[in-house]
Structures are given as C-alpha cells and as structure tokens.
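[#protein-structures] MJ: dropping DUF6368 family protein here for a structure pass
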Amino acid sequence: MIQPEEASKLGGCEALVDCHDSKAYAPGMAGPVASVLLPAKMSVERVAALRSGISRIANDVRGDDFWLDQRPFILTVGPEYPEAISEILEACLPEVLGWSPEDVVSFAAMCNDDEDHRLLARLCIDLAEAEGGVIDFCGQLAIGPPLDGLRDDKPVRVENPGGVTGVLFATMRSHYGDVAFARSWLGHASFRMVK
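AK: finished. structure tokens for DUF6368 family protein:
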C-alpha cells in the first residue's frame, strides 16, 4: 500500500486535486469504500482478469494501488478479515438476496471529491454486472430504510426506493444494491457513496 508520504511523489491527491476544495483532500483523509459481494469464490483466472481489466482503464497500477483519471484507489480481493462473510450470512442477507455471498472484492477511493464517489460507483457497477454480484455500500445511503430502525434478524428488500430504479437490500450492517439500483443511484441528485 502507498504510504501518505509517498502519495505526492506518485500522483496522490495532493498533486492531483485542487487542495482548496476541502471536500477533495486533506492529509490523512481517505474517501469512500464499497465492495461487491459475489455468488462464487474468485478463481485465480478471474482475479487475473479483474486485474487485467483495471490495468486497461487505469493511468497507473502498482500492486493493489491504481489510479483512474489520476485519482488513487486500492483494490482488495477477498474478505478484509476472516469473519466478514459469516457476518453477512448472520445478518440474514441471503434471505432477501436469494443467494449466499461466497467472496468479496473491495475498492477504496483515497480521495473524497465527487469524482472519487462516481468512479468508485462505476468500478462496483462494472464488477457486479460482470460477476453477478451485489454492491455493499458499507453503510447507510442517503435513501432507503435507516439501519438503526431494522431488527437484527429481519433484513429488508425495497424496490425502487425514493424513486431510484432497482432493488435496495438493507440489514443492520449496511445497505446493498443490485446493478440497476447502483446505476440509477449514480444519476440521482443526492448521490454519494458512503464514507
């Protein structure tokens, strides 16, 4: 992973974003994170194809760090910690999804400008569409049921929440969306990923 002191040398936010825009970057401040839950484990070949796809669209790739439109991102393949998938299963998400997540791919934007939120959403949409996954927004969006109002054992499925086309799934842990929802949310006036 790129260390903060290396970021400016490698084209990090300090060098690439107007630092007068306080939303865009402050030293030590990262942007939004989102994941794609997958119905099957990523094979070595699929991981290679994912990395190859990122290499084709990125300005630069250095291990798990890559730059899209000169904006830094981090890729993580697999759960961040061993219990991550079991926590999703315990939150009963499979009951509303109709399948059980087997793997996860995460993206982290290292800046917090509007463009970082849009690029993150596009990465997740493209991967979810290619792999048949669902997007984990890693928290509560500006629309949909509030997470603190849900019972732990009762996930919900909401079609076209707030006029956003698609399906939003919610557990006490997070909001999740299908590809249609994420694509529609990206075009919504209140669009933001979760930071």
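MJ: nice. Residues 30-186 form one domain.
AK: one more thing. Confidence is low (pLDDT under 50) at residues 1-27.
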